[in-house]
Write a structure and sequence with these properties.
43% helix, two-stranded parallel ribbon, alpha/beta, 13 strands, 2 domains, seven-stranded mixed sheet, Aspartate Aminotransferase, domain 1, Aspartate Aminotransferase, domain 2, globular
Amino acid sequence: MKSSYFLDRMREQEHWRLEESINLLPSENMASPQVRALLASDFGHRYTLPVNAEFAGAYVENSYRGTRITTEVELKCEEAACEVFGSEHACVQPLAGHIAAMIVIASTTKRGDTMSAIPVEVGGYDGYGQAYIPDIFGLNAHSLPFDATRQNLDPATVAREIKKVKPQLVILGASFILFPYDMKPIKEACRSAGSKLVYDGSHVLGLIAGGQFQNPLREGADALFGSTHKSFFGPQGGLIVTNSKEMDANVRKNLTWRIVDNVHWNRVAALGQALLEMKRFGPQYAKQVVKNSKRFGKELYGRGFPLMFEDLGFSESHQLLIDQQKATEAFGMSMNDLSVRLETSNLIIDSVGRLGTAEVTRLGLKEKHMPELADIFMDAARGKNMKKQVREFRDRFTMAYRFV
C-alpha cells in the first residue's frame, strides 16, 4: 500500500461527494470549511479532564496540563448550545447521537425499569428495540401506539397507554420523522404516571435549532438530545440540552468513565463553530429545508414517483417517505436496487425509503430549483445515466448558510 493511499482516497471522496454528486440522504449534511478545519486541528489529539476536587487524597485542578484553551472551548461550546436551544444546561461530550441516548437513558432509569419509544416497524430508532440499548441496561422495551396512516403519534391513545403501563422513561422522536408531535397530552400523562419524557431530535435537530418543526423543551420534554450531523450542520457527534438541574446533574454523573472518557475535543470545537453558524443562519435555513421538502415532494409526486402523505403536504421536516411497495412495482426493483441505480448517476439516497433535503438546502437550493432536480431524479430512476446533468446542476451552487 502506498504511503499516500488514504490521502488519495480522501481527495477522491471529496471530489465525488462535494463536487460531482447530489446528496439526498436524510442522515447527512455538509460541514462548512471552518468546521472541517477544526476537525483537523491540534484539538484532535489532546486531552482535558477538569477535576477541581480532591482525588486520591490530593487536590487536582485538571488531570492534564496544557488544557487552558481546550477547557475554555468546551465551556464556550456549551454556552453556545444553551443559546441556540434556549436551554439552561447543555452537554456537548457525547460522541454520537446514540451515545447521547445511552447517557440520557442511564440518567433516567435503573435495571428492571420500562422505557417506551416509537416501534421500529413504523420508523422508530432501531437502538431502542429490546435487543439493543434496553438489553445493555437491563430495561424492558415498550412500544408506543403509533398511527402509521398519519406517520404520527395519536396523543390521546399514547396518553392512555402511558397511564396504563407507567414506564419510567418515554422517548419521542424517530428515524422516520415527518411531522411534529402534539406533546401536551403526552407530557400530562407522563406527569400523572411519574414518567420522564425526553425527545430524540437526532433527525430534526437542525430544524429545532432554527425554530422550525417544534420546541421540545418548551413543550414539556425533560431533555432534548440527538445527532449533530443530520439536519444540523455537523460535525458527527451528539449533544444533550435540558432546563432541569437534576437532569443535568444525572447526565454529568453518567459521563466520565461510565459512557465516555476522552470526548474528542476537535469535534467539540467544530460543534461550537456549527452552533455559531446555526445561531446566525438557522432560522432561514430551517424554513427553507421544509419549503424544499414540500416542493420536491410535490414535483416528484406530480411526475409519478410514489411518495407517501401527499394529503398532508408530504412533510414538515427534511424527510420525504417513499411508498416502497409502489416504487418496487413502478420500477421493477427493490428499494435497495433503486438506490444503487440512482448512485450510478451520482444521486445519493438511502435504501430504506427516505429522501432528505437538508444537504441540498445547505447547498443553496430553493423551491424554484426543485422542478429541475425532480426531472433529473426521475430520468435517473428510470435508468438513464444522468451523471453529466447531475454534475452540471451541482456546479451551479456553492455552500450557503455559512460565514465567509
